[in-house]
Design a protein that fits this description.
8 helices, single chain, 19% strand, alpha/beta, Rossmann fold
Length: 208
């Protein structure tokens, strides 16, 4: 069983879309340990609607926090303390299927008062997939994310680029970091199961 942790260079960067694509491509299970805000339409609900394979199981969150803030701030607002060991003990059993784990916020987003999302990746002994998105400053944010993970000796599968491509930015990131490009996701007018299946077919070979 592979554990693939989907992280990003910022929040609202496309982690959930990439998670849905990977879940579909691998017939994997999906798990988001920490949900912040939007409890009536969670990321787990969103991924479930986009995945059509009959194998995947969608596991419940460990923490469901009401406020759309970084995990540590959302937990404080709800009077909750996030314990890393509670998350580790709640690691789903998948009957041998791969597990897609989606983070909250960016790689250095605080999970509690002393640890960040990067520490959760290490604790769960997962490989990381980084999601980048094109905007002014994204080269810096992407390279800092890669550097932070490498300094901690965390395994990185590669990077997805989300949104309208800026080829000069992609070229520099790949040349400077030497990271593996996993694929490019366009800004889709509609996002449904058919679109996710299309991307899953494109990217499946990168992970099998």
């Amino acid at each position: 069983m592979k554990k693939i942790f989907v992280t990003g260079i910022d929040t609202n960067i496309g982690k959930t879309v990439v998670s849905a694509i990977l879940t579909e491509a691998l017939g994997a299970d999906y798990w988001k340990p920490i949900q912040v805000g939007n409890l009536d339409n969670t990321d787990t609900d969103f991924v479930r609607k986009l995945v059509s394979n009959p194998k995947s199981v969608f596991h419940p969150e460990v923490y469901r926090l009401t406020q759309p803030l970084s995990p540590h701030a959302a937990a404080a607002a709800d009077g909750v303390k996030i314990e890393m060991n509670d998350i580790k003990r709640s690691m789903p059993l998948t009957d041998g299927r791969d597990l897609i784990i989606e983070g909250a916020g960016g790689t250095m987003s605080p999970v509690n008062d002393s640890l960040v999302m990067l520490d959760l990746i290490r604790l769960l002994d997962a490989e990381a997939v980084i999601v980048s998105k094109h905007y002014l400053g994204s080269i810096n944010h992407t390279l800092l994310t890669i550097d932070a993970m490498r300094r901690q000796h965390l395994p990185i599968v590669g990077v997805f680029f989300n949104g309208r491509p800026v080829q000069s930015s992609v070229d520099f990131i790949l040349r400077y970091s030497g990271i593996k490009p996993l694929g490019f996701i366009n800004e889709e007018k509609t996002l449904d199961r058919e679109v996710v299946r299309k991307y899953a077919q494109m990217f499946r070979k990168e992970f099998l």
